[in-house]
Amino acid sequence: MSMFNIGLSGLKSTQTGLEVTSNNIANSGTAGYKNNTAEFAAVYNGSQRGGVKVANVKEDFVTGGEIVRTGNALDIAIDGQGFFAISENGRTAYTQAGQFQLDNDLNIVNANGGKLQGFGVSQVDGGDPTIVPGVLTDLKIEASNIEAQASTNINFNGNLSSSSDVIAYPTAPAVFDPKDGSQYNFSQSTEVFDSLGNSHVMTQYFNHTGSNEWQAMFFLDGKPLTQAQLSALGATTGTQAIDDGAGGSINAGTITLNFDTDGQMVPFSGDLTAVDLEVPITSTPGNAEITSGAAALNIALKFDGTTQFGSSFSVNENDANGYTSGAFSGVKVEDDGRVFATFTNGESKLQGQVVLASFANVDGLEQGSNTVWYQTEESGSALYGEPESGSLGKLLSGSFMGSNVDISEQLVGLMSFQQNYQANAKTISSADEMMQILFSNT
């Protein structure tokens, strides 16, 4: 091959290198963009030198891009390997550009309207939603208001100090006054909700009444529950006169808690350590009742794990279920890809799970516009999995992955290609000068 053709092959290949480098620089701020590298190969025609060609333009899928913090819950970065799956009018594309938003139909989409794919949820008989693995679907948010749910359980777990003073209940004509802190050892309050979502306060008062023996009373919004409103199979219940705040008294129910010599609570019956608390719509004057128009309140108060050691009074768990109604307030995404709708009452509801795709040969993917790739025969079929499973990375909500372009490296490469281009141009001009000399001597 003539020097002209060798020089032209150098110009053409160098031009491609310049284009690749320029494209890298232009996309240095593009989310999910992968640095491209032009790979060159020498050309020979038999034993004759044929110049150079661009053998491949390879993308760097190994080096992670910069993690850019935004605080937007639907900006999702992949910390590690994997691709998001996006539905583009029926065709699945793959990307690491994790900048998403909600469209008018509350689908999770990218800026071009591509719908983020993941596992959906199922909900049976009003139970909690569960992930349906294995079937990809458009991830969509159900934003309807969440209805109020009445409290039905209180899980209480703490330590009643065995070294505390014995404080017996007052005997008639004296009455128990919950405002007098010297008449009981400990108290603890828990917020509960009725069927209309109204908030109430359930307060427990604990009295150390003897060796390994305690008694408890229960008040709702400052009014005591009666003995008839307490029930626990095998438990000992009783009554105690309470100051009604108007110079008289009302009766409150009491229940006895016993502990063994190892400090463990003795079950009421079998392994039962729960007390059923029933608060009716109407009750005797001065006692606990629901007057908000809601249904009667029925709560199982569980003392599982409650102890009596010599250490001070402490609470390890004091949680009630139930909540007031709530309006949709936003979305959150966990590291494992689970997507939740959040509500103004502090509750959240599972909506689905973002999945990641991997390929046997990522270099075989086909590039597309808008920083996406498509599977090919060379790449192999996409394999889907939950984030943090196998070789797949975890997700970082509130951030996105930027490009992995190193600007300094690209500028150095740009100068190198410029020099190569000038050198190849010089080769052609030198060949031209030689040809002119040759023809002038003939």
TrEMBL record:
Protein family (similarity comment): Belongs to the flagella basal body rod proteins family.
Protein origin, superkingdom: Bacteria
Limits of the Flagellar basal body rod protein N-terminal domain: 5-34
NCBIfam families: FlgEFG_subfam
Keywords, sorted A to Z: Bacterial flagellum, Cell projection, Cilium, Flagellum
Domain Flagellar basal-body/hook protein C-terminal: residue ranges: 398-438
Protein name: Flagellar hook protein FlgE
Annotated signal sequence range: none
InterPro entries, per database record: Falgellar_hook_FlgE_sf, Flag_bb_rod_N, Flagellar_FlgE/F/G, Flg_bb/hook_C_dom, FlgE/F/G-like, FlgE_D2, LlgE_F_G-like_D1
Flagellar hook protein FlgE D2 domain: residues covered: 170-323
Function according to Swiss-Prot or TrEMBL: A flexible structure which links the flagellar filament to the drive apparatus in the basal body.
Recorded coiled-coil stretches: none
Limits of the Flagellar hook protein FlgE/F/G-like D1 domain: 77-143
